[in-house]
Amino acid sequence: MKNTRIYITCFLLLTAFYMTGCYKLQTDYDYQKREADPKVNMTAKDYILSRGTSAPSNDTIFKWMQKAIEYSGIDISEYEKAGRTYILLHTDAIRRLTSGKVTAGFFFDYPVVVKDNAGVPIKSLVNPALDSLRPAVAWEDYSKETVKNLLLYLIVQGEYGFDNLTINNKAVTTLLPPNTKVDPKETRLGWVITKNEPNPDPSFATSVTYSPALGSGFDQEGKMNLKILNNDVAPIVVNDRVYNRTAGYYFTNGRGHVFSSTASGVPGTGMPPFRYSWF
User: Rounded to two decimals, what is the model's pTM?
Assistant: First the structure.
């Protein structure tokens, strides 16, 4: 009993000590509230390049987006024009590696068709009716046309942000021309059946339906849905599927939002270039 009393006494003394210490730390901490400045004193183009392939201190989060711009042949001056909203892709939204293999991002979600030396698609061993697929490892695995069209889709006409978006989807027009399609013999993106109206069954609102014969890949009206999710984080959501990483940038020529993660907070979901997909 004597030992027990000693242990209890020590426990109470230690508890009082730590509670007193914690309280002192909490009350004495000189907290100063600051808000991050959303204004970026440069164009969207310069911001991409400043954190691209030649960025200082290895801050190259837009390296793979810059590679897409350079490979596709899109006129980089598009990122200097005013009155636009620029959807910027963090590296994790394009390719995320695990043990040296692509396991997430656009390269993983929209794999390319495997072909033989003659350029003929190789059929899947699992389903001989379909072409075999593999994750892309570089933008060069896609055609320049597909990559350019993806970039055009990520440039919105008009400026949109937290001040003029709501919890309801707003269909905005991108630079992607209507009726743009992806070759189904190139990538599974071309297998995606796209619609201009929501799925009549709300429980499948974010589902994706594939068909090599009926797919188009890109939104056939060249539009994108933007909204703000009504939760404590209040992220901007693209096409009901992808949440922003950081948002609300004011470039000297428009707005900007960076994406790399999904609703669950898991990084590395490929940006869906379509609003609705169902059959």
Answer: 0.85
